[in-house]
């Protein structure tokens, strides 16, 4: 006999999911990992040493992923910044994944923005507190549709460009990442049991800056669906 379904005392929240380019199917999201200061120029602009120290990660909640094309300016902040990133979606997981096997775990890629309440993040940093209040909030991660790795391959280089109101704001090459995608996956898998549905935001190049309502952001990388976001 099939197992009985649990009786929830409240309606369960909807499953966070990302669209897939050219498909009616969606990709269910389990966890969202974000690597910090993964481009040397960005580390320098944030006042840090870009030396290749062990990577560090923080998390956003899956329901902060937003595919609507709108970014409502968040509450309790007067200094919200854009951070242009490549998102990696895992199709399978594991523990202690070897670097040489890591890309076999990738299902696809997408463009994303790590929106940050920079003023609140700054207060948290000074107090030695976690960053979540600055990084993880409603609509904090606008995302474009995923492209399967089977169609794109595994990008190792290529220009990531963010335009704000038609003017270039962030430009960087994926080959400038301090920690490459296989290294990120392998490192995370030493501390967590990764699983299908996990996604990783791979860091941002230099040029991060504030947004205001009315701004139009367009993030591009050849081979991926552009991410266009209107700040409201």
Report the biggest beta sheet as strand number plus sense, adding barrel if it closes: 6 strands, mixed
Specify the structural class: alpha+beta
CATH architecture: Alpha-Beta Complex
Q: How large is the share of residues in beta strands?
A: 25-35%
Number of domains: 1
State the order of secondary-structure elements, H for helix, E for strand. EEEHEEEEEHEEHHEEHEEHEEEE
Approximate shape = globular
Number of strands: 18
Please give the alpha-carbon distance between the first and last residues: 51 Å
CATH fourth-tier homologous superfamily: Fumarylacetoacetase-like, C-terminal domain
Low-confidence stretches: none
Rg calc: 17 Å
Instruction: Could you tell me the CATH topology label.
Output: Fumarylacetoacetate hydrolase, domain 2
The number of helical runs is 6
Residue-averaged pLDDT: 94
CATH class: Alpha Beta
Strand order of the largest sheet: 4-3-15-8-9-12
Helix content, binned percent:
10-25%
Offer a few descriptive terms.
single chain, 232 residues, alpha+beta, Fumarylacetoacetate hydrolase, domain 2, six-stranded mixed beta sheet, five-stranded mixed beta sheet, 6 helices, 30% strand
Structure description:
By secondary structure, this protein is an alpha+beta fold. The chain has one domain (17-224): Fumarylacetoacetase-like, C-terminal domain (Fumarylacetoacetate hydrolase, domain 2), CATH 3.90.850.10. It has helices spanning 40-45, 99-102, 118-126, 132-135, 149-152, 181-191; strands at residues 17-19, 26-28, 32-35, 57-60, 65-66, 70-71, 80-82, 84-90, 106-113, 116-117, 141-142, 147-148, 159-164, 167-173, 199-201, 209-210, 216-220, 227-231. The strands form five sheets. It has a six-stranded mixed sheet. A hairpin with a 2-residue loop joins β13 (159-164) and β14. The mean pLDDT is 94.
